[in-house]
Amino acid sequence: MHYTIAVVEDDPDLLEILEYNLKKEGFEVFAFERGEHFLKFMSEGKKPHLVVLDVMLPGMSGFELAKIIKGNEAYRDIPVVFLTAKTLEEDKLKGFELGADDYISKPFSVKEFIARIRVILRRYYPQKLEALGLGKLKLYPDRFEVFCGDKKVELTRAEFKILQTLLEKKGEVVKRSTLMDAIAPFGRETVSRAVDVHITKIRKKLGECGKYIKTVRGVGYKVQE
Fold this sequence. Notes:
The protein has about 220 residues and is α/β, with parallel strands linked by helices. It contains 8 helices and 12 strands. It has 2 domains: about 5-125, Response regulator (Rossmann fold, 3-Layer(aba) Sandwich), CATH 3.40.50; about 130-225, Winged helix-like DNA-binding domain superfamily/Winged helix DNA-binding domain (Arc Repressor Mutant, subunit A, Orthogonal Bundle). It has helices at about 10-25, 35-45, 60-70, 90-95, 110-125, 155-170, 175-185, 190-205; strands at about 5-10, 30, 50-55, 80-85, 100-105, 130-135, 135-140, 145-150, 150-155, 175, 215, 220-225. The chain starts with a strand and ends with a strand.
């Protein structure tokens, strides 16, 4: 499952770091420096799987944004995580009273931040832990594991993301440009030829399951039996 995360943080450097690392882990990220921009995004019918809010935002605070989210029937089931330099117990209690699922004090470890995000997502969306599969091929997004029958297959993050994207659109033709976008956060060379090279390596590593990946000449690839 492809999780989407909205991050509202007025520090552009921290926002860039969070956006980069979340994308690197395979999340789709919507980044905002102001609460008003985030609310406009939500008013367009967008619903992320999780929202990260800085408390001390210009204009509308993170606490105010959380109150709006939790007060709207359509959005109140979205988990909220606060980021803040405020470490007083009363501030943390206020955050939890507003329905926050976690309260992370700055400075913090990006690795720990992502680990906490994953814990919350697993709690809210247990069905997302199901494997993506075709025939003997099984891919577990949250465990970063791939199996062909009983044999575990070791893939790089870029290879894993390409295979995940293909399996999420099982039976559909996936354009090379879409696969290029999927591996862009991993710092790989995002050109058409790079995708072809990755596909060749994936097929080889999958062994007999490599046959499921079909080439659609001039367009891209698809997976089917």
